[in-house]
Amino acid sequence: MYATVMHGPGDVRYEQVSDPRIEKPTDAIIKLSATCICGSDLWPYRGLSERNGPAHMGHEYCGVVVEVGSEVKTVKPGQFVVGSFCLSDNTCPHCAFGFHSSCQQGEFMTGAQAPYARVPLADGTLVATVEMPDADMIPHMLAVSDVLGTGWYAADAAQVRKGGTVVVVGDGAVGLMGVLAASQMGAERIIAMSRHATRQQLAREFGATDIVAERGADGIARIMDLTDGVGAESVLECVGMGESMDQAMGVCRPGGAIGYVGVPHGVSFDGQKLFFSQRRMLGGPAPVRRFLPDLMDRVLKGAIRPGKVFDLVLPIAQVAEGYRAMDERRAIKTLLRVDE
Q1: Closest CA relative to residue 132, chosen from 141, 143, 122
Q2: Mean pLDDT over residues 318-339, rounded?
Q3: Is residue 308 a contact partner of residue 116, using CB atoms and an 8 Å limit?
Q4: What class is the 2-132+310-337 domain?
Q5: In sequence order, which residues have a C-beta less than 8 Å from that of residue 230 and are 6 or more positions away?
Q6: What is the pTM of this model?
């Protein structure tokens, strides 16, 4: 088959590779219904994350099971499934505690920007639907596997509560999903930090009540003004840069919580400042598997439509253009059609 391979910064190719196969009895092979490009894929694309040699890309996926290993019990061929970008057994102590992204057997999904993919630890990673979703549901189900699950985790980690005030730092796909999550959790005020008109519009559609375009000290001052000098009790950091973390720290009130899900690049902390700021912090790779059943149910019931975050749709053979569009901020998130 053909699949997406990154050979180096800026060098993404759709080229022939070996077909995926069952390698362990806990594996499953799925036929992708759709796949997409993640914002985190742009780190190596921009040369900001090291890769040793060509890498098979893609970790967001949904599709139909075509084959399972001999030990797989919870999914079977013909079922539609959604999985997490973090593979997990769903039985270890960390999974039982709700942190599947720290599973003792865990690893990260790769190779999903392709027509077919191997999913290790299938029993603990994949969640099947009762019926086959309609075609128009596919983008929304795909969003659940990472970008929505990650935005949801940011809101959960930031302890978003009904009636609360939330600030979302970052207007990429994860930040927009964080806005949606905060809205679903009942936040009364959701302040989205964004300087881009199309992203501001989508943020409002997902539930943002205020938009702050300023950055740095001006952005912090604007939010403090909006909150009568108090700050927000819940802040979602959805970028991973030093500037965005400083922004999050600057607008979080004492006793408040920061949920950080942006992969850190250039982030550091001053111990004294951190000590006296008295802010809770929780983040890291999202334990999406914890949220999958609930989020899939919300999508299937029509309560949320997270697939609206895909503002560019391309055939998978044009994946290189999808990367360029996201890198140049011509697209928020690219969905790749799989027609094979």
Answers
A1: 141
A2: 95
A3: no
A4: alpha beta
A5: 224, 253
A6: 0.95
3-state helix, strand, coil in the chain (%, to 5): 35, 25, 40
Range 74-77 contact pairs with CB under 8 angstroms and sequence separation of 24 or more: 74/122, 74/123, 74/126, 74/128, 75/28, 75/122, 75/123, 75/126, 75/128
Quick check: 242 pLDDT over 90? Answer: no
Q: How is residue 241 annotated by DSSP?
A: B
pLDDT, tens digit (0-9, with 9 covering 90-100), for 280-314 = 999 999 999 999 999 999 999 999 999 999 999 99
- pLDDT of 262 reads 86
Supply φ then ψ for residue 265, to 5 degrees.
Answer: -140, 110
Question: Domain limits of the chain?
Answer: 2-132+310-337, 152-283
DSSP per-residue string spanning 139-166 = HHHHHIIIIIHHHHHHHHHTT--TT-EE
Handedness of CA 70, 75, 79, 83 (dihedral sign): negative
Q: Report the residue count for the chain.
A: 340
pLDDT above 60 (res 260): yes
Pinpoint the alpha helices (H) of the chain.
42-45, 93-96, 122-125, 138-143, 149-157, 173-184, 197-206, 216-226, 242-251, 271-277, 288-300, 319-327
**DSSP bridge pairs for 55:** 6
The pLDDT value recorded for residue 340 is 56
User: What is the per-residue pLDDT across 20-61, written as a single tens digit (0 to 9) for each?
Assistant: 999 999 999 999 999 999 999 999 999 887 777 899 999 999
Nearest to 178 by CA among 104, 225, 248: 248
The alpha carbon of residue 336 and the mean position of all alpha carbons in its chain are separated, in whole angstroms, by: 16
Assess if CATH 3.40.50.880 describes domain 152-283. Answer: no
Q: How far apart are CA 155 and CA 237, in angstroms?
A: 9
> 10 Å Cβ neighbour count for 60?
30
Q: Among 16-20, 156-160, 220-224, 241-245, where is mean pLDDT lowest?
A: 241-245
**Mean pLDDT, residues 157-184 taken together:** 97
Residue 66 tokens read as 């075509």
| Chain-centre distance for alpha carbon 163 | 25
